[in-house]
Amino acid sequence: MNVDFSQRRNALRIRHRIGVLLIVAGPAVALIGAVYGITRGSDKVLAMKSPTPRDLQKAFESAILTYGGIGLAISLIGLAVLFTAIVARNRLDRREYAAPQPPADPPGSP
Predict the structure, then answer these.
(1) Which of the listed residues 2, 42, 65, 82 has the most CB atoms within 10 Å of its CB?
(2) CA gap 86, 24 in Å, rounded
(3) Burial class (CB within 10 angstroms; exposed 0-12, middle 13-18, buried 19+) of 97
(4) CA dihedral 101, 105, 106, 108 (to 10 degrees)
């Protein structure tokens, strides 16, 4: 059975990078989404005839919780992808180094 360790290593490297990207993108999505949600919530409160502080709180709370939750979910997915890539790479390293090496030619052989 011929196993191509370099192809598997490259695939794991790509998974590793995707995991890191998702971990970094999660908070960015949460921040951008929260700003968008707060802006939308402010517009709704401004359109009311007699808004109360509770109305403003509800608008901001829903925006922050919704988009914060989405950002957290993205980061957790990235963490899971990164973790599985690291575990798989460690297993691959163990298999690669445990694989039988071809015998070396003795010195002086043609």
Answers:
(1) 82
(2) 17
(3) exposed
(4) -160
Closest by alpha carbon to 85, among 9, 12, 1?
12
pLDDT per position as a tens digit, 20-72: 999 999 999 988 988 888 888 888 888 888 888 888 888 888 888 888 889 99
| Residue for token pair 């052989």 | 109
For the chain, the domains span 29-96
Residue listed under structure tokens 């191509």: 4
* pTM for this model (two decimals): 0.70
Q: How many CB atoms lie within 10 A of CB 104?
A: 7
Q: How many beta carbons lie within 10 A of that of residue 74, not counting itself? A: 20
